[in-house]
Design a protein that fits this description.
The protein is an alpha+beta fold. It is 34% helix and 19% strand. It is built from 12 helices and 11 strands. Helix 5 packs parallel to helix 6 and helix 9 packs across helix 11. The chain is elongated and about 90 Å long. The model has no long low-confidence stretch (mean pLDDT 94).
Length: 406
């Protein structure tokens, strides 16, 4: 709306105002690193051929009376973790046990609920310890193994559990120093590599010693306890409820979405033709799962924008109680989704990773609404954009001749 009032492209308004490194947020938090707001928008613009589409759709709309095309952009930044309001829960634990066959048992305090968390935990544990991925067993989540680590929400699981895993892996390696001193006399522990089931000096990689041999020497030869725990506490946060100021989150993730729509002005039906989603994740521990998470979250955002309408009766009881009345999008409703993953590592994230689980959902609806606005000249202030609502607003626009905000 600001862009239209000033006759400036909506992407340009964002370009001028998006946060950059060393900028301060509205809560006066200075962002020191891993600030990718501009990067995500520019990458999404490039991937979607945004400017070409703006011109192309404008020409189309000048000659087509019924089917109007539009393109819209949204940008999001989102705090990772529970923030200052939940810092009493900002801790996480991890457990590791190295066995004499070189396998590793791992337990963390966050839950696998279909997001692929166990895979990511195993990958991080493998990289941190050198135990091959297929020799890592992830134990079921239980506070009898790992202390309560707070909820698996707020895009925090990878960041928090990942750092706890690194703490545990560091302790495990420390306990093996006496054995390593005998295997590699005169070699500093810091100069050793742990990779694919072997330990070896980086200067002489041909001197590989199998990790099971080291584990057996430690367990039977030196009676070293190879069960370790890690405990991670998130970086400090602060927030003053009276002034609304403070370092609300320890880090943020960033996303930009560009939606392309066709609006049938006779029926009010909005068809999402294509969606471009660009996210900064710090480090993609598992790129395939990152892309899948983005696609799944985007489809949720599409439902929120276009179909998922909750209706209550006069007593406040929900009437949309099933999938015949509360319409969620299926695979048949999914448009082409172009995913762009950016990696701007954070120094405190495990391997540079930041949490991003909820981020793919957040910017989709505003991008779609903006695209419909671009197509029709009508700004919508409510969701979802079901045909009845769109048609009603278009008819009001037609009656009043107002081409702007309804």
């Amino acid at each position: 709306a600001i862009a239209l009032a000033l006759s400036i492209d909506p992407a340009e308004v964002r370009r001028r105002n998006l946060l950059r490194e060393n900028d301060a947020t509205a809560t006066s938090q200075v962002l020191k690193e891993s600030v990718a707001a501009v990067d995500t928008m520019e990458a999404a613009i490039k991937k979607s051929h945004y400017q070409d589409k703006v011109d192309q759709y404008s020409k189309h709309n000048s000659t087509c009376a019924r089917y109007k095309k539009g393109i819209g952009v949204s940008t999001v930044f989102y705090g990772v973790g529970l923030g200052a309001g939940g810092k009493h829960l900002a801790r996480s634990g991890a457990f590791m046990q190295l066995h004499t066959d070189g396998s590793l048992e791992v337990a963390v305090g966050h839950t696998e609920m279909g997001q692929g968390f166990k895979t990511v935990v195993a990958q991080m544990a493998s990289t941190a310890t050198g135990v091959p991925y297929d020799q890592i067993k992830i134990l079921e989540i239980d506070t009898s193994r790992v202390p309560d680590s707070g909820p698996t929400v707020a895009s925090r699981a990878t960041f928090m559990s990942g750092n706890a895993l690194l703490e545990a892996a560091g302790e495990l390696k420390k306990r093996l120093i006496p054995v390593l001193g005998m295997k590699f006399p005169g070699t500093e522990p810091e100069s050793l590599s742990w990779e694919n089931g072997y330990v070896f000096p980086r200067s002489t990689p041909d001197q590989k010693v199998p990790l099971p041999d080291i584990a057996r020497s430690a367990c039977y030869g030196m009676q070293i306890n190879l069960s370790v725990v890690g405990w991670y506490v998130a970086p400090p946060t602060s927030f003053d409820q009276d002034t609304g100021q403070g370092d609300a989150y320890f880090t943020y993730t960033y996303a930009s979405n560009i939606a392309e729509v066709t609006v049938d002005t006779r029926t009010g039906v909005v068809n999402l033709d294509r969606l471009t989603a660009c996210l900064d994740v710090g480090k993609a521990v598992n790129p395939q799962q990152v892309e899948g998470q983005i696609q799944g979250g985007a489809l949720q955002g599409i439902g929120y924008a276009l179909t998922e309408k909750i209706v209550h009766d006069s007593a406040g009881l929900m009437k949309t109680t099933g999938f015949s009345t509360y319409i969620i999008p299926t695979a048949m409703d999914a448009p082409p989704i172009d995913v762009v993953v950016l990696e701007k590592p954070h120094s405190r994230g495990p391997f540079g990773a930041k949490g991003f689980g909820e981020l793919p959902l957040m910017g989709v609806a505003p991008a779609i609404a903006s695209a419909v606005h671009n197509a029709t000249g009508v700004a919508f202030r409510e969701l979802p954009l079901i045909p009845e609502l769109v048609l009603e607003k278009l008819e009001i626009q037609s009656a009043s001749g107002d081409k702007h905000d309804q």
